[in-house]
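Record format v2
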Amino acid sequence: MSNRVTIADVARLAGVHAGTVSRALNQRTENQVNHETLGRVRQAAKQLGYAPNSIARGLRTNSSMTIGVIIPDLTNPIFPPIVRGIDSRLTERGYSAVVVNTDGSDDAERLHFESLVQRQVDGLIFATGHSGHSLAGEAFDRGIKAVMVNRDSGGVPFPAVVGDDADGIRASLAHLVELGHRNVLHLEGPPSFSTSRIRAEAFVAGCAELGLNGRVVQCSAYSVEAGQQAMDDLFESNSKLPTAVVAGNDLLALGVYHSLRLHGVKCPEDVSVVGFNDMPFAGDFQPAMTTVRTPHFEMGAEAARLLLEQIDSAPRGAMKVTLPVELVVRASTGPVR
Amino acid sequence: MSNRVTIADVARLAGVHAGTVSRALNQRTENQVNHETLGRVRQAAKQLGYAPNSIARGLRTNSSMTIGVIIPDLTNPIFPPIVRGIDSRLTERGYSAVVVNTDGSDDAERLHFESLVQRQVDGLIFATGHSGHSLAGEAFDRGIKAVMVNRDSGGVPFPAVVGDDADGIRASLAHLVELGHRNVLHLEGPPSFSTSRIRAEAFVAGCAELGLNGRVVQCSAYSVEAGQQAMDDLFESNSKLPTAVVAGNDLLALGVYHSLRLHGVKCPEDVSVVGFNDMPFAGDFQPAMTTVRTPHFEMGAEAARLLLEQIDSAPRGAMKVTLPVELVVRASTGPVR
DNA sequence: GAAAGTGCTGCAATCGATTGCAGGGCAAGG
DNA sequence: CCTTGCCCTGCAATCGATTGCAGCACTTTC
């Protein structure tokens, strides 16, 4: 459908050979063709509305100008900015992104992975933490270029782009200390995500350093439901309530909001809450959420940059790019009473 | 990179011709090959980990198993669910989606359109209202299959999937009337979106029918800023404040929240606000937003279904699928005092 | 004036799969 | 024993572009 006009048509009209047309229309080779011929070819191409068939080109050049992006779930609000960051860099270089969602399923991830490889993507961006058993490793063995974003590389020699999670947690704790909090709880994300561990460890270290009484509870997912569940459980266990909770991400923090409201506990008067990520509209929640802003767009853009660099020159190895984060103080944290 | 093993390798190992391998490995033709041979081929393919090169296949079959999805902006919260709905239908049929963002620019839209056509996408899904000057028409003339989602087809004979916007507005007005409101304002979206007009017209018609005093103000974009701007302007104009505003979408409604807060006007005590779309987390805003839930995921899924149907059989023409919407009453609407 | 070099273009192979056509092998039927 | 027909498989063209190689025309150099 659609693209009836081929390079042969242009060649015929311009009175030259198809090979010459190809050379005339490619940046890299256009200086191999006579100036006047070049003009004729361009004119003919324009007249016919010729656009090269990228499938045919891809077959010959062994590249698809396509990048596969593997994420858990596009409706998780942190991913749209990441994807757009990726896209911004890709588009300007003529690449396109094919985004697939795994919904946290290893099987789905593998299936999508195979499908992308089959499509001859020129590279992959992994944004899932959940590939514990290392699809990335397999990708590396198969000679596929890739980078990680929002997760570490788990030992596989691919570059990784992450936010400075430890620093974000540190800033959150410092903020809480300043408000007089001493009993703090961390809601840790599921263990399959590398970010969970890093944030939890930073929390423990930070508490030790600041002399806080810190506790850690693990959640089953990075979701509102899991956050609420964890908090509900805490209420039911009758253990002493912390005066502040540092949630593993904004969704967990929202779950905390729900649980607190359900139990008639006021935020921030009774319990302060800090999120992580500064997801879109976090400032419009009730109460406006204090949270750590992670530069998702920039992370995506940087990941794409590293991938393209890898594609058109040598592999970079397991370098790690850490982008700075920033605590955004809003209304969900307040002085302890 | 990656895919070293070709159909010729499999043929060699199985001791047959490449053509036979191709027939053996395709659903449609596998009954053309002897049962025992088929076993041998499958075994060989498995042993070598063979996966067909979809670029090569695409060149021959003139199909890429790829669908282009053109949206304004992925970070607009209504699009992730739509995209996932599309994806859900596409994936199960072996298709992939390439999503591009236009940011409302006609130029960007055209560029992306050309790029997608060049990539030989098997079809397109338009989710932008802003293609006034009818890329869709051009697509149709070029014989490209497409469907519209969340916008009408603007006269081009492609199927369109929309929510029942008029009914949503009607329900909103009925709800407000029940609460005693009589002076209502509609914040209309920008004229380039077909949804803007439809909602505004339904608003006017609804007010007439219910005997309400309705006013309409047009916003420059479907964004928080535009909503706030429109409301700020209203305050500055010193005209009489309505007791309720029916926003063109949730982002505009959020803008109204901001403006009201800025001017010390309470919602819902002084002014009720109704949104449109029920974007994710609308229930977590301050106050929790009363809004019309649009089935975005289903709209995406239905659009993809219609497109695939169009691809593997006859075109359906300009049919229109209208999905039901539902008013979700939360805390941003209350009785007039 | 011969040799060497340069600039441009055509030729044809190639990428990896799909598919119409032809033909071999074999059984059934006359 | 020959014909007919059915299965199955091989052959080779094909999709549309890219690219190494060869060759032609012409200039430069000694």
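DSSP finds twelve helices and twelve strands in chain A.
The longest strand of chain A covers residues 66-71.
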